Amino acid sequence: MKLLPLASAMLLSGSVVNMAHSSEASKPITMQDVMHFESIKKTKLSNLGNTLAYEIAPDRGNSLGVVKNLKSGQVFTVEQGSKPLISHDGRYVAFDRKPDLLTVETSSKKQRKKLKNKMVLLDTVTGAEQVFEQVKSYAFNEDSSYLAIWFEVDSASKNQAADKDETDKKTEKKPSVHKFDQGSKLQLINLESGESHSLADVTAYAMDKSGKHLAIVQNNQPQKLHQVSVININTGESKVAFSRQDKQIGSVDISDNGQWLALTYGDAEATPSGRVYQLRLIDVKAQQARKVASDPNWKLNRYSKVTFSDDSQRLFFGRVPEVNQQLSLKKNCRPLKICLM
Fold first, then answer.
1. Cα–Cα distances in angstroms (integers) from residue 62 to residues 36, 102, 111, 131, in the given order
2. pLDDT for 291-331, tens place per residue?
3. What is the fold, at CATH topology level, of the domain defined by 37-167?
4. CA torsion 329→167→175→325, rounded to 10°?
5. CA geometry: angle at 215 spanning 212 and 221, to 5°?
6. In whole angstroms, what is the distance from residue 221 CA to residue 223 CA?
7. CATH, domain range 197-326
8. What is the spatial distance between Cα 76 and Cα 328, in angstroms, rounded to a whole number?
9. Domain map (residue ranges) of the chain
């Protein structure tokens, strides 16, 4: 038997021990380990570079919103926070709060329709959180003085309307409003004072880049209310720029310099899918409408959006060659099956 030198023997024994530890540390990854993997998404940096916000999302489960003050190093977390939006000055951060995943998975199809997103507003100076229910969308103005929150159609109002319809059916049949044409509440919040102003029946809104003007579209078919108002956010002054009793207003946008307003409108009695829209361009300061050339071969439908260029010199909008009424089958109808022999 050949003997190894003492140094070689010690080196060999050390290698065996390291191999043993290595085999324990490099055990196979299980599915449970994979489910705990997390990734950073939707990274946002404030315009002043003082606030960083992002979303930590697991492979499956609820996300976590994270906000870091890059000057002080202070960190805030928002449970179930996703899709952060930071105000221009970096003081306020808004997060979507989606319904809890376990609640979604254990709910019926009917119950899931009632689960709506919330919005969490975080003040990075005080650490205070405000939670808003059933939020559709939200936006800060440019100087971080106001926050506009657009809510979903109130479910309580839907239920009351449904009960009323059942009662009306016994007396007279009244036309129902398509959900695409229904408006909901929009709330404008002064972030400094905390005061807020609410508007009902809002179906669309737009804010100019300077954050000084807010264009609001309000549609209420039973009351024959269809109008576009322009609000000066700083003074609170509101002017009706366009109003019709029988025209459903669709898309709206206001130029960044606050001078031009563009909107689409169509017959209120037509169904949304078959409604042909017209384009209107308004000089807000002069309170005059400008004619827009139209092409009979290209039409505007309910999905046509109007958007101004950054320099407020051009208007973009989408058109389609034809607008047709969509056909729908009744719930008790079955599709026709054709068998080829």
1. 11, 9, 19, 17
2. 787 788 899 999 999 999 989 999 999 888 988 776 555 55
3. Methylamine Dehydrogenase; Chain H (2.130.10)
4. -10
5. 160
6. 5
7. 2.130.10.10
8. 49
9. 37-167, 197-326
